Amino acid sequence: MDSTYASGTAINGAHYTVKLSMLSSAVGALQAQLDSLQNDRLTLAAQLLTQNAGIGSTQTWEQNEKLVNELEIRIFIQDSVNATQLTMLDNLGMLCPNTNGEAVLRAQVLYNRFMEKEFSPVCTGVRGGSGEREDEPEKVANFSLFPNPSAGIFTVLGINAFNSQADIFDISGLKVALLGEKGRIIAGKAVMAAK
């Protein structure tokens, strides 16, 4: 700081004018740099939007990736989010990431930069080739084996389908039997099969 200002003495009008001119010039130079950075930012964002638009997307998860990319770029340009963009992020964030891709998680993070929300999507499938949900029915083993543990002879109840197979393992993880259709032994120790 100039000693004249610090001492509290009266400022010479010419001295004040020179200092004000220097300060004004520095502010003008900073404003020019800021304008240049803003122009560079907009140019880069426009290039990124063009590149993103050129990415092929045939599957749902790819389309979601493109959408989140575009939203991120547009929010970067405007340095804020509008209601439409926030709604799009919210809707995407509620989808299942297993079937709709990583973009769902990115949308959740981006949404939470502006509004706080705990997303709880319900997932019932896995991502398939088409990007659509592929629900697989849960396979439930519907049989009983006793006594368990066994000395080598045991009974299996409930194996009655012609094409069903069951592997029987001992406590150490070694396969001791393979049951085929109607519970017949294909390989392994003695097993008594029943319906």
Descriptive report:
- The protein is α+β, with helices and mostly antiparallel strands and 195 residues long.
- It has three domains: 1-54; 58-134, no CATH class; 144-194, no CATH class.
- 46% of the residues lie in helices and 14% in strands.
- The protein contains six helices and eight strands.
- Helix 2 (13-53) packs antiparallel against helix 3 (60-78), helix 3 (60-78) packs parallel to helix 6 (103-112) and helix 4 packs across helix 6.
Summary keywords:
195 residues; alpha+beta; three-stranded antiparallel sheet; 8 strands; 14% strand; disordered C terminus
Order of helices and strands: HHHHHHEEEEEEEE
How many separate structural domains? 3
Structural class by secondary-structure content: alpha+beta
Instruction: Give the overall pLDDT as a whole number.
Output: 75
Uncertain segments: 127-138, 190-195
Tally the helices: what do you get? 6
Helical content band: 40-55%
Summarize the biggest pleated sheet.
3 strands, mixed
Q: Using only CA atoms, what is the Rg?
A: 35 Å
Portion in beta strands:
5-15%
**So what's the overall shape?**
elongated
With strands numbered from the N-terminus, the spatial order across the biggest sheet is 3-4-8
How many strand elements? 8
Distance between the termini: 97 Å
Q: What's the helix and strand layout?
A:
Elements (H helix, E strand, L loop, with lengths): L2 H5 L5 H41 L6 H19 L4 H11 L3 H4 L2 H10 L13 E2 L5 E2 L9 E3 L7 E4 L8 E4 L5 E5 L5 E4 L2 E4 L1
Parallel strand pairs: 4-8
Antiparallel strand pairs: 1-2, 3-4, 5-6, 6-7
Helix pairs in contact: 2-3, 3-6, 4-6
